[in-house]
User: Which sequence fits this backbone?
C-alpha cells in the first residue's frame, strides 16, 4: 500500500469524497470519525496528521484513514521534552480509531502500525470497549513487543450509556522518545519553549531543549545560534565561539553570526582574533558604526595603538545619520581625547615634569596591574556604548538575535 501523510486543512478537504465513502462503508465508523467533526478540530489544532492508505498499483482512491495528533510534554524526571501520540478516533470512545475498507482491514492495520512505529514518541494511550474489535486488537498487538511497556491506565464508564472502556498506556522502556529525537512536528514547539525558559533564566532546561532541537534537526540554525547565546549568558565564551564557527561553516555570509563570533572572542580577551573578525565584517558593512568602534577597541586592547587611533579617526570620514553610528562617533572622539591627553602626560613625564595624578599612574597597585596589564584606562579596554545603542560591545545575547524564531528545515 502507498501511504500519504496529510497535515493541512486544504489537503484534508481534498479527500472528503473518499473519506465520506469509507465512513458509510465501514461498520466500525462512529461520530468521532466524521469528516465534519474532524475538519472543525483540525482548523484549530496545531500538530495533527492523517495517514491515507491507497492501492500502490491502481493509484485510485484511498482505502483507509488513520487520524492522529501529537502532544508534547516536559518530563520532569529527565528534564527533556517528550511526545505523545493521540489517536483522535479512539480517544474517549474506546472504538477503532481508523476508517478502512473491511476486506483490507488486516493489511491497513499493519501498515498504520508500522507508520506509527516510525514516528518519534514516548507514549501513546489506547482505549477499547468490551468486547474489543478485531481491528483494534490487532493494532494493540502490534505494540506488545520488547520495545514498549504496556500497562493498564484504568477504565471509565461512558456517561448515559453504561458502557465501560479501558485504557492502555503504551510507552517506551526508556521513557524518552523513540530514536532519542523529537517528533518532527514538535521541533518548532520545543524551540519556542526553550526560548521561554532561556528568557526566564532557566538555563539548564533551556540548554537541554536547545540540544534536543539541534539533535533532532541538525540544520536548525536558530537552535544552535540560541544555544551559543545561552553559552555567552553563562560566560562560556569558548563554547559559544565553537558553535558560531560551526554555524559559519553552514552560512559563510552570516553577518550576525560573525558579529557574535567577535563578541565571543572579546569575552575571552582574544582581542587580536576579535579585531580580525570585526575587520572582516567592517569590510562588508563599512557604515556600521558599532563594528568600527569594536574594531578600534580590540586593536587598542591588543596593543596596536596607532591602528586603533586610525580607526577611531576614520569615523570623521563616514557620513551617516544612524543613531548608533552617531553615538559611537561621539565615543570615538572621547577615546581620541583621552589617548591624546595620555600621550601629552607621557611627553611631560619624559621632559621631567610630573603632572597632577601622574605619581599614582606611574605606580599602580598590584591589583590594578593584574586587571589592566596594558596600562590602558578601563573604560577603553572594556568600554560600554553610550546609552541607547542597541548592540552591546560584549557578548550579551538577544534571544532572537535578528533571525526570528522559526526556520524552515
Assistant:
Amino acid at each position: 500500500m502507498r501511504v500519504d501523510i496529510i497535515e493541512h486543512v486544504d489537503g484534508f478537504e481534498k479527500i472528503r469524497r473518499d473519506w465520506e465513502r469509507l465512513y458509510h462503508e465501514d461498520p466500525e465508523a462512529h461520530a468521532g470519525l466524521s469528516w465534519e467533526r474532524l475538519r472543525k478540530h483540525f482548523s484549530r489544532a496545531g500538530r495533527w496528521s492523517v495517514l491515507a492508505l491507497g492501492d500502490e498499483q491502481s493509484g485510485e482512491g484511498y482505502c483507509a484513514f488513520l487520524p492522529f495528533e501529537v502532544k508534547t510534554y516536559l518530563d520532569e524526571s529527565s528534564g527533556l521534552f517528550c511526545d505523545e501520540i493521540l489517536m483522535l478516533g479512539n480517544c474517549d470512545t474506546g472504538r477503532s480509531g481508523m476508517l478502512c475498507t473491511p476486506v483490507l482491514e488486516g493489511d491497513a492495520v499493519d501498515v498504520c502500525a508500522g507508520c506509527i512505529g516510525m514516528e518519534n514518541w514516548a507514549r501513546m494511550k489506547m482505549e477499547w470497549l468490551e468486547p474489543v474489535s478485531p481491528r483494534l486488537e490487532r493494532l494493540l498487538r502490534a505494540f506488545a513487543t520488547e520495545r514498549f511497556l504496556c500497562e493498564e491506565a484504568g477504565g471509565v464508564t461512558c456517561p448515559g450509556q453504561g458502557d465501560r472502556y479501558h485504557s492502555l498506556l503504551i510507552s517506551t522502556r526508556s521513557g524518552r522518545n523513540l530514536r532519542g529525537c523529537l517528533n518532527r512536528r514538535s521541533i518548532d514547539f520545543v524551540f519556542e519553549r526553550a526560548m521561554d525558559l532561556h528568557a526566564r533564566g532557566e538555563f539548564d532546561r533551556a540548554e537541554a531543549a536547545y540540544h534536543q532541537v539541534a539533535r533532532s534537526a541538525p540544520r536548525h540554525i536558530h537552535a544552535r545560534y540560541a544555544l551559543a547565546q545561552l553559552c555567552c549568558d553563562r560566560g562560556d565564551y569558548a563554547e559559544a565561539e565553537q558553535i558560531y564557527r560551526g554555524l559559519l561553516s553552514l552560512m559563510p555570509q552570516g553577518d550576525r553570526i560573525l558579529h557574535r563570533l567577535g563578541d565571543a572572542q572579546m569575552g575571552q580577551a582574544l582581542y587580536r582574533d576579535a579585531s580580525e573578525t570585526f575587520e572582516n565584517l567592517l569590510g562588508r558593512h563599512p557604515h556600521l558604526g558599532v563594528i568600527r568602534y569594536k574594531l578600534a577597541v580590540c586593536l587598542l586592547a591588543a596593543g596596536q595603538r596607532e591602528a586603533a587611533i586610525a580607526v577611531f579617526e576614520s569615523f570623521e570620514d563616514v557620513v551617516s545619520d544612524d543613531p548608533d553610528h552617531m553615538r559611537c562617533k561621539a565615543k570615538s572622539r572621547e577615546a581620541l581625547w583621552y589617548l591624546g591627553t595620555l600621550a601629552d602626560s607621557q611627553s611631560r613625564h619624559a621632559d621631567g615634569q610630573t603632572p597632577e595624578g601622574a605619581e599614582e599612574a606611574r605606580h599602580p597597585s598590584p591589583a590594578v596591574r593584574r586587571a589592566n596589564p596594558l596600562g590602558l584606562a578601563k573604560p577603553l579596554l572594556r568600554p560600554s556604548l553610550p546609552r541607547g545603542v542597541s548592540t552591546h560591545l560584549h557578548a550579551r545575547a538577544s534571544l532572537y538575535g535578528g533571525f526570528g524564531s522559526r526556520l524552515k528545515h
Notes: Residues 360-409 have pLDDT under 50 and may be disordered. The longest helix spans residues 323-350. The chain has two domains: 2-179, 182-321+328-352+372-381.
